[in-house]
Specification:
alpha+beta, Aminopeptidase, 7-stranded mixed beta sheet
C-alpha cells in the first residue's frame, strides 16, 4: 500500500458520512482481539468532527482509511488521544503511526499545557506512543475524573479494572507530560531496548489478571478457559 497517497488531516463536519463505518470498525476490531473499548456512537464521533478534535485518513477518491479523536478530562489538565482505528486493508502499512503523530500534534496545539495519556493493550501502539515521547506510567498518574473511568464500563475487562480498584487492568498506561518528559528519541530508544520486557509484561498481565475470570468458564466442548487465554494473548501481541 502506497502511504504517500493517503491524506491524513483534521476532520471536518463534511466527514460525518464516515461516522458509522468508524464506530462499526471500532467495535469489530475490539471483538476480534477479544478486548474491550469504551463504546462510542456515531453522534459522538460527529461531535468531535464539529469541534475540530479529530484526525481522519482518507484516500484521494474519498475511501476511508483511519481515524482518531481527542478527549479532555479534569478540566483540561489531561488529554487523551482515543479511538485509534484503521480499516483492515490498510493495517500494518504504517498509517496508524501517521494518524497518531497528527492527533498528538493537534493535541499539543490545542492543549499545550495538558498531559496527554493513553491506555492500550497492544504492543504496536505502545511503540508508536514511545516514538512520540510517551512513557509507561502507573494508573495513579492518569486522570481520576470519574467520567473517564465510567467510559470503561462497556469494556469486557471492566470487572478486572474494578477488582483492582482502578489501579491496574489489561491496558498499559502511557503519559506525555509537557512539563516533565524525555525527548522522543530517548523514549523510543528505551522501548526498543526493553521491548522483550514489555512483551513479558503483557503476557504476565494476561495470565495474572485475566486467568481468574476465564478459568471458571467452559466452552461448548467443556474445555476450561485456558485455551481462551492463549488465544487472547496471541491477539494481544500480534494486533
Amino acid at each position: 500500500m502506497d502511504n504517500q497517497q493517503i491524506i491524513v488531516r483534521v476532520a471536518t463536519p463534511d466527514d460525518k458520512k464516515y461516522s458509522t463505518i468508524i464506530t462499526d470498525e471500532m467495535a469489530a476490531s475490539a471483538a476480534a482481539r477479544g478486548t474491550g473499548i469504551a463504546k462510542r456512537s456515531p453522534e459522538y464521533i460527529e461531535q468531535k468532527m464539529d469541534e475540530g478534535k479529530a484526525v481522519i485518513a482518507v484516500m484521494p477518491d474519498g475511501k476511508w482509511v483511519g481515524f482518531c479523536y481527542i478527549e479532555t478530562w479534569s478540566h483540561g489538565e489531561y488529554v487523551a488521544n482515543s479511538g485509534l482505528i484503521v480499516a483492515p486493508e490498510f493495517r500494518k502499512s504504517g498509517i496508524a503511526k501517521s494518524i497518531k503523530k497528527r492527533i498528538f500534534n493537534l493535541s499539543r496545539e490545542k492543549y499545550p499545557d495538558s498531559k496527554i495519556f493513553g491506555l492500550t493493550t497492544g504492543l504496536a501502539v505502545m511503540k508508536i506512543n514511545s516514538d512520540l515521547g510517551y512513557e509507561p506510567v502507573t494508573y495513579s498518574e492518569l486522570t481520576q475524573d470519574e467520567a473517564f473511568w465510567a467510559g470503561c464500563k462497556s469494556c469486557v475487562n471492566y470487572e478486572i479494572l474494578m477488582s483492582k480498584e482502578r489501579k491496574n487492568c489489561m491496558c498499559t498506561a502511557m503519559l506525555y507530560d509537557p512539563k516533565d518528559h524525555y525527548k522522543p528519541e530517548e523514549t523510543k530508544q528505551y522501548f526498543e531496548e526493553n521491548v522483550s520486557g514489555f512483551e513479558r509484561l503483557l503476557r504476565f498481565k494476561s495470565w495474572k489478571l485475566l486467568r481468574p475470570f476465564l478459568r471458571k468458564e467452559k466452552d461448548k466442548d467443556g474445555n476450561t478457559g485456558d485455551g481462551k487465554l492463549k488465544t487472547f494473548i496471541h491477539h494481544l501481541l500480534h494486533f
